[in-house]
């Protein structure tokens, strides 16, 4: 079982693949996902995921991808690799105000994926009403040629570990009703329908002229309970 900052034990085997790295992986400086004890340290090999692929298999496919919260200077490379630099600038501004965390996946110096953890009130009234204060996993994206290697799952698990470490009991997300691929991934990771029907959610997009538009989409809302972090004496 892996240790977490301050001698905390993170008791969720299914999430251990956040630190599924190739042997010899050295943890970068992070905003709390790995904590001081992981900084600059070689992270231990992960444990196997019950009923699924082994972490070793996931590591092999995730070859050399690493995950960390973004830094202010990452907006340009994120925009260049994933598009929509203004979106990333906006999320980094919110992160600097403590309103969220932008998680990023990298191969070397190249971003290959991102997920923004929204810690503000949900913009969608039904989600605000039924899930007050529940953090939202938003804008998960992996570059097309980097998909099916476990990077999307690793980003989600990184966020879950961050949330559990910060005392959150649940995480939620909205996925378009026609996005069966992403929904399958979320269900495999333990997210379940919230039981209040579909909602109109909003997808932000920056137009070529720099304006940001919010486009309505019909979405399923999925929720997952996060295991509590047990602190060692
Ligand atoms: C949805 C998305 C983020 C998934 O990213 P990804 O990196 O491909 O995700 P993963 O690799 O973790 O999982 C994808 C599939 O690869 C499979 N896979 C992952 N690692 C694997 C491995 N080591 N061996 C075999 N299969 C593997 C997973 O089982 C999963 O299969 P499934 O589709 O049957 O669930 C990506 O497809 C994407 O960016 N889509 C466009 C944006 C989008 O729709 N975002 C979601 C918004 S809500």
Task: Give me the secondary-structure topology.
Elements: E1 3-4, E2 8-9, H1 55-61, E3 65-69, H2 75-82, H3 85-96, E4 100-107, E5 110-118, H4 125-130, E6 136-142, H5 151-165, E7 170-176, H6 180-188, E8 192-193, E9 199-206, E10 212-225, E11 230-231
Parallel strand pairs: 6-7
Antiparallel strand pairs: 1-2, 2-11, 3-4, 4-5, 5-6, 7-10, 8-10, 9-10
Helix pairs in contact: 2-3
The structure holds coenzyme A.
Outline the structure in words:
This is N-acetyltransferase domain-containing protein. Residues 65-208 form the N-acetyltransferase domain. Keywords: Acyltransferase, Transferase. It comes from Amycolatopsis ultiminotia. With 233 residues, the protein is an alpha+beta fold. The chain has one domain (64-231): 3-Layer(aba) Sandwich (Aminopeptidase). The protein contains 6 helices and 11 strands. It has helices at residues 55-61, 75-82, 85-96, 125-130, 151-165, 180-188, and strands at 3-4, 8-9, 65-69, 100-107, 110-118, 136-142, 170-176, 192-193, 199-206, 212-225, 230-231. The strands form 2 sheets. Strands 3, 4, 5, 6, 7, 8, 9 and 10 form an 8-stranded mixed beta sheet that branches. β9 (199-206) and β10 form a beta hairpin.
List keywords for this structure.
alpha+beta, 6 helices, 233 residues, disordered N terminus, binds coenzyme A, 11 strands, eight-stranded mixed sheet, Aminopeptidase, single chain, three-stranded antiparallel sheet, N-acetyltransferase domain-containing protein, 24% helix
Bound compounds: coenzyme A
- Can you give the helix content as a percent range? 10-25%
Q: Indicate the CATH topology.
A: Aminopeptidase
The tally of helices reads 6
Main structural class: alpha+beta
Overall number of strands: 11
Radius of gyration: 17 Å
Spans of at least 5 consecutive residues with low confidence: 1-51
Integer average pLDDT: 79
How many domain units? 1
Q: CATH superfamily, please?
A: Gcn5-related N-acetyltransferase (GNAT)
Q: Cα distance, first to last residue?
A: 15 Å
Biggest beta-sheet profile: 8 strands, mixed
Proportion of β residues? 25-35%
What is the string of SSEs from the N terminus onward?
EEHEHHEEHEHEHEEEE
Morphology call? globular
**Assigned CATH class:** Alpha Beta
Query: From the 3D coordinates, which CATH architecture would you assign?
Result: 3-Layer(aba) Sandwich
Pfam families: Acetyltransf_1
Organism: Amycolatopsis ultiminotia
Domain N-acetyltransferase: 65-208
Keywords: Acyltransferase, Transferase
